Amino acid sequence: MLSKLKQKRSIKGKRSKVVIENGQISVRSPKAYLYLLPAVIVLVAFLFYPLIKILRMGFFERYVYITSTGTGFGLSSIKHVLADPVYQLALKNTCFIVFIGVPITVGLALLIAILINSLTKGKGFFQCAYFLPYVTSIYAVGIVFKWLFHSDYGYINLFIKIFGADAVHWLTDPKYVVLSVTLFTIWNGLALKVILFLAGLQKIDKQYYQAAKVDGTGRLRVFSKITMPLLSPTIWMVTMISVIHAFKTYSEIVALYGSDAAGPGNSAITVIFYIYNMFFTKGQVHYAAAAALIFLIIVIGLTAIQKIISKRFVYYV
Fold first, then answer.
1. CB-based contacts of 227: which residues, under 8 Å, 6+ apart?
2. If you ran DSSP here, which 8-state letter would residue 25 be given?
3. Is 272 helix (H, G, I), strand (E, B) or coil?
4. Who contacts 213 (Cβ-Cβ below 8 Å, separation ≥6)?
5. For a tag site, which of 15, 54, 60, 195 has the least CB within 10 Å?
6. Assigned domain for 58 exists
7. Cut 0.85: pTM above it
8. Residue 43: how many other CB atoms lie within 10 Å
C-alpha cells in the first residue's frame, strides 16, 4: 500500500523550488513564466485578440472596421452568408477539395514514403527530390501548372490526345476548374507528408519485421498487422494536417487565377477566398467575419469527429 503512495519532497530556495516526486527531480522557478511571456504575447496579439474581434464583428448587420463600431447586433449577417449562393459554392468546392483531395494525398504520400524507405541506395536523393517542392514558391509552381493544364499546349492534354480523346479545358471550363485546383493542392502538399511518413516509418523498431520474417509472414500481412498499427499516430497527424491545409486552400487559386477572381465566374472559389474577397475587395467585414465564424464551427466539428475516430484506430506503443 505504501509503495503505491506518491513520495513527494520539496526543497525551497530563494527564487526556485526543487520538487522530488517518484524519484524524478523538477525545478519550479518564476523565471519560467518570463521565458513563456514572449510566446504568450504573440498568441494574445495575433490569435486570441483577432478571434475575439471576429466573434464580435460577425454578429453585426453593419460594421465599420476603422472605428470598431457596428449596428444591428444579431444573427442577420450569419443568415445572409448561409443564404449567399457564392458562399454555398465556396463551401461545396472546399468540401470537394477536403473529402476528395485529402484521402488521395495521404494515400499517395504513404505509398511514396514506403517505396523510399524500402530503398537500399539513393534514399537521401529521393528524400531531397520529394521535399524540394515544399521550399519552392507556390506562385512559381502555379506557372508550371498553368502550362501543364493549358488547353492547347499543355502536356496533360497532349497525353490525353494520344488516346484519341478531346482536349480538356482544365482552367477555363467551370466543370473542371475545381478538379484542377484539387490536383494542384494534392501535389503542393505531398512533400511534407512524405517526409512525415518517412520519419514515422524509420521510428518503427526493426525487430518487429525481423520476427515476422522468421515466421514467414507475407508482405501484405506485415503491412496490415505491423506497419499500419505502429504508423497509425503518424497517419492521424498527417490526416489532421492535410484536412487543415485543404480547408485553407487559397494560395493555389491565386497562383492559377490571381486574386481578382477564383476562375471563370468564381467557379473555383473556396471559403478562404470568399472571406478574403468579402473583407478586402467588397469591404463588408461583417459578412467576412460571419463566414469565418461559420467556417470555424465546421472545422472544430470535423476536428472533434476525427478525435473520436482516432481513439478507435490509433495505437500508441
1. 114, 201, 204
2. E
3. helix
4. none
5. 15
6. no
7. no
8. 12
In a domain, 309, yes or no: yes
What's the domain count of the chain?
1
Instruction: Fill in the amino acid letter for 239.
Output: T
In the DSSP assignment, the letter for residue 280 is I
* Cα–Cα distance, 254 to 275 (Å, whole number): 14
Per-residue model confidence as pLDDT tens digits over 218-265: 888 888 888 888 888 899 889 988 988 899 888 889 888 887 778 888
Closest alpha carbon to 141 in 253, 271, 267: 253
Residue given cell 514558391 in the structure block: 137
For residue 202, the model assigns a pLDDT of: 87
- Asked if residue 61 is part of any domain, the answer here is no
Does residue 17 sit in helix, strand or coil?
A: strand
Range of the domain at 134: 79-313
The SS3 call for residue 317 is: coil
The CA–CA distances, whole Å, from 166 to 65, 144, 149, 152 equal 50, 22, 14, 11
Q: Is residue 45's pLDDT more than 80?
A: yes
157/150 Cα distance (integer angstroms): 8
The 10s digit of each residue's pLDDT in 71-113 is 777 788 889 899 999 999 999 999 999 999 999 999 999 999 9
Q: What is the pLDDT of residue 6?
A: 45
CA atoms of 15 and 187, how far apart (whole Å): 53
pLDDT per position as a tens digit, 263-305: 888 888 999 999 988 888 887 888 888 898 898 888 888 888 8
Other C-beta atoms closer than 10 Å to the C-beta of 241 total: 16
Closest CA to 168 of 154, 151, 144, 183: 151
Residue type, 43: L
Assigned domain for 47 exists = no
